[in-house]
Amino acid sequence: MTTARRQPAKKVAKPARKAAATRGSAPSTPKAAAVPTSDAIVLTGPPGLLRATVSVENAVDQRVAVRGLTLHRAGREALSGTGAAVIAPGATAELPVTFRLEPDTPPGDYPAEVEVGGIRREAVLRVEPDLALHVSPRRMLAEVGSSEVTLTVTNDGNVPMSLAAVVRARTDDGGPDPGPDVTLTLARATTVAAGSTSVLGGTLAVPEELDPTRRHTARVPVGTADLDVIILPRDASE
Questions:
Q1: pTM of the predicted model, to two decimals?
Q2: Domains defined along the chain, listed by start
Q3: SS3 220
Q4: Residue that wins the pLDDT comparison between 8 and 72
């Protein structure tokens, strides 16, 4: 009887193992050298000096110098800020930054972006009120009775400033007790807008009962500014 010979078993090729670089997900791209942390930056202060501290991470194996901060706002030109640091490899630095906005920027919160090391981060500009009213002349001589005055009032702040039509201030001769009032009467009550200048006419009244042998002073309020009035000694016959 003839028997068939058994054929040797065929070897089944195993699938090739995947390269290590493809294991799991695609390989990650290299990180930027200076990477700001993810929290939004809140800059606070008056328009001329908005400040914040930004955390910046150095994600490479060499020192990194961070310079050239930029503020981006919708519909506005980009602004350069101040702030610099040298960060060691793998370290995180706290970077103080400052920006200067237009001086008449009203108080409030404004959305923006801060660019640090080529990376933009969401930011909030929290602008605080800036009360900066100036009056010229700052000081003036006055005599007993009424005299006409002209004042130039400049609002360098970011909020409108209301001026009353009539204001008063106590006189001071250096003694313990205040004297009678000096009165400033403007032609009308007015409001000086932020970033503007107003020229105002008015009358300054100095009371006759002041001691003529003494020098008197009065600090008259003009909004948040002061007009210093000086009344010199005079002859009793005047």
A1: 0.74
A2: 32-127 (2.60.40.10), 133-231 (2.60.40.10)
A3: strand
A4: 72
